[in-house]
Amino acid sequence: GAVVSQHPSWVICKSGTSVKIECRSLDFQATTMFWYRQFPKQSLMLMATSNEGSKATYEQGVEKDKFLINHASLTLSTLTVTSAHPEDSSFYICSAKGVGGTTTDTQYFGPGTRLTVL
Amino acid sequence: GENVEQHPSTLSVQEGDSAVIKCTYSDSASNYFPWYKQELGKGPQLIIDIRSNVGEKKDQRIAVTLNKTAKHFSLHITETQPEDSAVYFCAASRTPGGFKTIFGAGTRLFVKA
Asked: Which one of A37, A45, B80, B113 has the minimum C-beta count within 10 Å?
């Protein structure tokens, strides 16, 4: 139980283009989803928190117009990196918390998306 | 702000030996402490967690201990195997409610065969 998927697992794009990453909770309803960015050999850096049906809350220093987050349903959140540049290349990971049972307190992570911007 | 310190950053052990990773948290209201294992190129996976009303929890070769007074918690892996090699993250949060989970910096564990 408590499985989170991400799509795509990796993506390569040209500078200036936009990329959308999907995060889905497969067997529970995710009332809250989180988006993290991880650089090589570093910890998880929280970018934003989104609750279903409301605007995402971004961490300090994260550009909300560049990293668009939509949490339109209880099983899907999307992160769109707009006008991507090489410095946006990173490993993006989502996680989800739900309601009831272990999903209330625990964040369950997706497998991550490797973004490379050329 | 609140933080979680994790030590050591790198740990190398011989197969069959035990490994211990320690974390200290600053928010005394934290009451939930999960541990995650992250293999290369993958997302973190929950391996064990502990709540503040419990001092120790075991799951086969993995155990976690919590000292609320000292605000310390530790992960113990016994009889380590090469497949235990990964990065381990500790975390602390308050539940219920919309409080942020604070992650440690991670420990890279190498188990030598």
From this structure: B113
